[in-house]
Amino acid sequence: MDREQIKSKFETKYKLYGDMLYKIAFLHMKNQDDAEDVLQEVFIKLLCSAPSFKDLDHEKAWLIRVTQNTCRDFLKSSKNKNVSLNFDLSSYPAADGDMRLDVLKKLFALPENYKTVIVLYYYYDYSVSGISRILKISKSAVKMRLKRGREMLKIELEEYANET
Length: 164
What we know:
By secondary structure, this protein is mainly α. Helices cover 71% and strands 0% of the residues.
């Protein structure tokens, strides 16, 4: 592949998946710079070492898994570094309004396995079986993570229960 073909492939894939993968990375990394670093790493992996994909769904699932794993690796490698616990939600797409901001903060606070499942299910409309295939876990595990994640969010967001 020559330089122009690589550039064209990158632009096409970035338009297809960039926004979704950035949101997933931001959810895990909790700041714009780290999310962008993860996104860059994921697209390098896509361009340089991706397997052959059966279809776009297979490619999308692979990218979501790679994004999640890259975030996990990045967080593990930075555990011994001085990392700020404050994160900037203003750089998260569509983070406006007090309630939406609170929901995002509570979502960020969930354990990784719950927030990934919730984001895929509610933000990207994946089915339980689709999430099961992407994360390589059983359908019952997906359902349990959704249930527990919703319960945790419900407890954290009780202050909004009486607002309408």
